[in-house]
Design brief:
single chain, 103 residues, mainly beta, 1 helix, MOSC domain-containing protein, MoCF_Sase_C
Length: 103
């Protein structure tokens, strides 16, 4: 599998993206800002990239609720150049926090 093949635009490390609240702002590099809007909802076409990938990005919790692990979606508030190794600053929205839903 190649970078970007699943539609990812930015790959992060060390941030629990799936558990951040809706409307969190990610400041990436010196000028870029992205507002998190929800969980990415994978479709069966993902298995055409690699067999079994759909099962790898879906799971269930102890209550049987579906857990989506295919990433998050967001809107760009401020663009700019993003480079490998750029710092990402997580800015939580005001409370109460809303859990991410599929988009």
């Amino acid at each position: 599998m190649e970078d970007g093949q699943m539609g990812e635009n930015i790959t992060t490390q060390g941030i629990d993206l799936l558990n951040l609240p809706e409307n969190t702002i990610l400041s990436v590099g010196t000028t870029s800002k992205i507002k998190i809007t929800g969980l990415r909802n994978p479709c069966n076409q993902i298995d055409s990239i690699q067999k079994g990938l759909m099962n790898a990005v879906l799971d269930k919790d102890q209550k049987g609720n579906l857990i989506r692990k295919a990433g998050i979606m967001g809107i760009v508030l401020n663009g700019g150049e993003i480079k490998t190794g750029d710092e990402i600053i997580v800015e939580l929205p005001p409370e109460p926090h809303a859990k991410l839903k599929k988009v």
